[in-house]
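FORM 7B - TANDEM STRUCTURE REPORT

SECTION 1: FIRST PROTEIN
SEQUENCE AND TOKENS:
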Amino acid sequence: MPARIEDVAATAGVSMKTVSRVFNNEPNVREKTRARVEAAAKALNYRPNPSARGLAGNRSYLVSLVFDDPAAGSSYIMEIIVGMLVACEQSRYSAMLRPLEYASADHIGAVEDSIARYRPDGLVLVPPFADDVKLLRRLDELGVRYATISAKAKIGHERVGTILDERKASAEMIAHAVALGHRRIGHVAGPLPHGGRAWRLAGYRDGLRRAGLPYDEALVVDGGFSFEAGIAGARHLLDLDEPPTAIFAANDDSACGVMHEAFERGLAIPRDLSVFGFDDTPTSRHVWPGLTTVRQPCRDMGRIAAEQLLALIRDPTAGELVHVPYELQIRQSSGPAPSRPRPRPRSRTR
């Protein structure tokens, strides 16, 4: 017969309530007691019954990651997911992925429907959901706990989750490009609903201003966080009469698209064009030349956001907004600006 909670309690010499508190990661359990209970559970090969656990604690022991469906295949989201799963595993929680279409007419209703259907104990939100003030206020009205990742919106109270100074990081990346001699630096911006677009564009402008370089609207193109958006943005910028010698893309996926288009035109990176990204996803390290980018610790951010959410679920006064550091990752895709103006590269016939 499978071991029961009563067997664990008897073996550890504690009450069943204490065993339950240990497996629910509740506070105020002495470390020696926790270790004794966990050792007894391991010796008996005990596995908590999820259904019974949920009924006893009036919880689902489930948290949900809500993200925009078009971003489902991005490296950024995958790293967030891995980090979140680590935190959930440590706290014996299950994680549910809820890709929803932010552009739909009733995305708030879609979030509410997901909550009603699956009854998660809390949500982890990434932009653009994390920046939707109406959604956040609705969750507050419903009493739904949530944590945000890289949110820009302010809703009148201290939030729980993780954040990184994307504006400052972007400005430092532009300073690096300027130090290499680049004076015409293009930017493939992120998608309009995403808060990161505004911060990275603002950082791009900050970097130009500090270097004494004018802001040229012709060097900024609307894009997105996809490989295809990077290709489209690069085509626009490289077709200019005076194309840039460097391009800063809003994320690594779009930066790889920029590199692809440059190669299609016979340009050498970084001899003819330097390329910069943002996120430091595994893709940035796997491509050649290696992509110069901003290291945003996406996996850590997913883990920390989930940890803060779980702390809030256990104690309404717990949880905080954790500021995480960034770091420039200088790789082979960035180099000195060309010493002589190069002719405008033409798109190859497709």
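SECTION 2: SECOND PROTEIN
SEQUENCE AND TOKENS:
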Amino acid sequence: MPIVLIAFVMSVFWISVMARELLNCLAALGALLELPPALLGLTVLAWGNSVGDLVADVAVAKAGQPALAMAGCFAGPMFNMLFGLGTALVIQTANVYPKAYELHFHVSIVVAFVFLLLSLMGSLLVITWYRIRVPRFWGFFLVGLYVSFIAVSLVIAKFTV
């Protein structure tokens, strides 16, 4: 058991080191291409963070467990938002204590929040309206909504740089 615990801690350490290095490389690439960090987070970082979930959810759905895949689609991002963001904010506020941590406002955060709210509330309404069934058009709508979100974010990034 101690060896398993040490192996787990070392795995977390190496994942943290590699993630930090990849983030630094991404930040350097963004600086070279003069891209705002918010845009990099909305695209490259979000895609890299979500590819594993996408593959797992599609595989689970193809294996005949669509309810499990749907639960994973919502539970994974919820865990990231609540636990990941909560932990990061606790650490950051501890670093600046006794002052409050000041979040720098960017319009892309508001745009992301609006699109997230549209997708989640729309999913709640459509899935409830269709009696816990997901119609095909809703999948196409959500993909279109994401493409619209990326387009709006790119336009905002272009004019706020």
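SECTION 3: OBSERVATIONS ON SECOND PROTEIN
Residues 1-34 form one domain.
The longest helix spans residues 2-32.

SECTION 4: SIGNATURE
Preparer initials: ____
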